Amino acid sequence: MANPYLDYLGLSDNSESNNPYLDAVNSIPSPSQNKSEPSGLTGTLKDAGVTALKGAVALPQSFVGLADIATGGRTGKALENVGYRPQQAQEYLDTLYSTEQQQANRAVLEAQGFLLTLSALKDNPSVIAHTVGESIPSMIGGLGIGKVAQKVLPGLAGTAAGAIGEGAITAGQQAEQIREQSPDRLLDPRQSALSLGSGAVTGAV
After folding, report:
1. What is the pLDDT of residue 34?
2. Distances 29 to 20, 23, 39, 174 between C-alpha atoms, Å
3. What is the pLDDT of residue 21?
4. In this structure, how many other beta carbons lie within 10 angstroms of the beta carbon of residue 66?
């Protein structure tokens, strides 16, 4: 394999040479040779850690989003002004996955249509595992909201409380994601209603 350092210098390593300088340059591994990633169990544990961090970022994002709905996005914008950047954090964490997991995530993301998405998930089952893992903190947050709802409404059934909690988490996440993409970094009434509607659908399911 050609050495990129020799190529840069306009030299060739194809011919025999007793030049110690060329020998030294030839001994330098190329950047691609230096680059290595954890594989096997180590890589799996690393990916699991990344997923746990993504879940930890998503949970407070939901509560900020709920406050956004009540304040027209001013809560999220105020936090953003002091460095709160959940979307950027999520995007950065995505780059920390192993190459194999990034490829699997991309294959599912780029699949067009329901059937092709199912096929991509079948071929990349790790995506399902990481999606579930990332949602665990939000599930716990939803249970907490459900318990609070039961204290406020003592006669509320457990299933209804769970639906309220899950719907609230979904509405909050949706609201904050919409706010982050808004030009003015705020929420208008229509966007707030859309977020609440998304949460209501999730809770009903």
Report:
1. 41
2. 16, 12, 21, 47
3. 46
4. 21
∠ Cα 31 53 73 (to 5°)? 115
How many other C-beta atoms are found inside a 10 Å radius of the C-beta of residue 106? 14
Angle between helix axes 86-94 and 158-181 (nearest 10 degrees) is 90
Q: CA 143 to CA 107: how far, in whole Å?
A: 32
Quickly list DSSP for 47-61. Answer: HHHHHHHHHHHHHHH
The tokens 């993301």 sit on which residue? 109
Q: Model's pTM, two decimal places? A: 0.73
Tell me the Ramachandran region of residue 28: left when phi exceeds 0, alpha when psi lies from -120 to 50, beta otherwise: beta
| pLDDT higher than 90, residue 35 | no
